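RETRY 2/3 - previous attempt timed out on the joint model. Re-submitting the same 499-residue input unchanged.
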Amino acid sequence: MALVLHDTLAAKEVPFVPSEPGKARIYVCGPTTYDDAHIGHARPCVTYDVLVRFLRSTGVEVTYVRNVTDIDDKIIQRAAQNGESPKELSDRMFLSYTEDMDRLGNLRPDREPKVSETLPEIIELVEKLIARGHAYQVGSDVYFEVSSFPEYGKLSHRNLAEMEAGASERVDDAEQGKKRHPFDFALWKGAKEGEPSWPSPWGPGRPGWHIECSAMSMKELGPTIDLHGGGLDLVFPHHENEIAQSQCATGTCYSRHWMHNGFVQVNKEKMSKSLGNFFRLREAFAKVEPEAIRYALLSVHYRTPFNLEVDLDDEGHLLSFPQFREAENRLEYLYETKARLLELDSAKIDEASSEPAHAEIAEFQARLRSALESDLNTALGLSHVALLLKRINELLDRTKQKKTKISRVAWTAAHEAFRHLAEVLGIGQAEPRFFLERVRDRRAKERGIERSWVEEKLALRNQARAQKDFVQADAVRAELSALGVEILDGTAGTTWRLV
RNA sequence: GGCGAGGUAGCCAAGUGGUUAGGCAACGGUUUGCAAAACCGUCAUACGCCGGUUCGAGUCCGGUCCUCGCCUCCA
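RETRY 2/3 succeeded.
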């Protein structure tokens, strides 16, 4: 078995075959750093993170490159509004993005090239395209000539004639007049008054949107990469244009595989800045553990739309994200299970027994791997996780009985399964007690419940219980329960959580 | 208009020709001073609609309805 991925260019699932066996060069379109990331931005990041983690876990040496678009109209505009320089804004937002993606449990890419640091390569690429007759200069602008590339449209599976028929309305741009063909696109844009600019053979200006990715991809990974990823909306025109300009410049295949993730939607509509229906990750982080967002995203196949449910109050204020909340509950279960395993009294482990773990524990790695090999089916993978946790709890339940032990073999298998889960899906990486307390304390704070107050109540109740005053003890339970505080009497003492 | 994705039991969501996906909710049981947690069981012979192919279709083919996306900055 080997990894099979849905390939946008082939329009079907194909085996992932890198040009060099055992190595994978991956380029993913990263953020334009003009604002904090929203929940939609988390999806590709988590998706490609799992891809990279998974490949590495199978021994593939991955070079993961994700660019930063730090030269862009939106950055220039927003910076002007804020009264800061485009670079200040971009640097600030890059840090914000990095922090958010870290909190979601993503690995950092191996390299994060910036457009502003790739100007010489971009200019060189544009010159090459002009020299080869695929681009033309108009004043201080340079355009790519789409008609010079017969394969144009192969990625998005459309052709120029069809598109012209449908796109009639929106060509009101002054720019259109300069182009030989409406779908020709800018490789280099001459600077207008007051805009940041860089010198070039065509005068001061800045790169067009598409050329930067070709240049950065080639600079970091060479003319042919193994996989190029991004959001579904980048298929056309961004990636289509990247293929055209890259292939025309190098004469060779630009990317062997094309992978695109589906959107996060709100009320079945795409979450986007322009629709204004977006939620920043930091808003969400205030309501739920970042890892819960990761878990929820992974519970849906990466190409299926993720329809985000949003719970608002009458005035439209954000109350919660029910799916993230549910995912957080699942993570509580996961970390409780992990904590039980790690804290199991060693006297309960039979070193001599060779009794194997249940297949759902022992074969977890193989099952997860098999799920991910099938077009990164993380939803199926998480169903294996659900069974894994159930089996581990069942195993641990056995130790509740006196004189009953579990085998070291089974314990180790369970432990290994957790390790593998964290490595490949990036789930369950935190220290269990730390995670659980953080969730509890955040939920308590949301409801204005003081930790010390709860603990006083618990002390009171335990005193009553010791005296077999169960009426009193149950009164305390009822009082706390009404506030959502759940009391758990365990063998090791009484703990509490918020539901 | 063109191209593409999706419609699966109360809800979420896998599954692409034939034996239990999984989760949530609900209900029963084991356990518990009572609970909760955990585990076991039930919910479930569900697959937008109409035809066709097949011994057999959620899964393939044809048609049709609905939702969404791209074609314009966008993950």
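Chain A has 17 helices and 19 strands. Closing ticket.
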